[in-house]
Amino acid sequence: MTYTHISHETATVARKMHLVRGCYQERLLCGYEAWSGATLTGNARKYSTHYRTSRENFVARLTAAGFAITEQIGAHGRREKTIVSRMTGR
Fold first, then answer.
1. Beta-strand (E) ranges in the chain?
2. Domains of the chain: which residue ranges?
3. Cβ neighbours of residue 48 under 8 Å, at least 6 residues apart?
């Protein structure tokens, strides 16, 4: 089960460009965290507004750096994003 569709090369480029800030954004990039925030538990759920801001800033940085991001609805209504680097084409 993954929430992000991204090639290994594209993820590496995003990391090398220092677009990923913090463990939460790394987990978003790898597809372990839901883009809707539904996977937040415990104290993280109390700060969901801050995590939403983090997601929005992350998407803005990726878009400004030339990454194409599309969102689709996956199985069971999950929000899934596909991230493609215009540099690698993947």
1. 4-5, 67-73, 79-85
2. 4-85
3. 37, 40
Work out the pLDDT band at 89, boundaries 50, 70, 90: low
The CA-atom distances, in angstroms, between 28 and each of 10, 13, 43 are 14, 15, 18
How far is the C-alpha of 59 from the C-alpha of 25, rounded, in Å?
Answer: 10
d(Cα 43, Cα 17) in Å, to the nearest integer?
A: 30
pLDDT exceeds 70 at position 90: no
DSSP 37: S
Query: In angstroms, rounded to a whole number, what is the distance separating the alpha carbons of residues 53 and 26?
Result: 15
pLDDT tens digit sequence for 12-44: 999 999 999 999 999 999 999 999 999 999 999
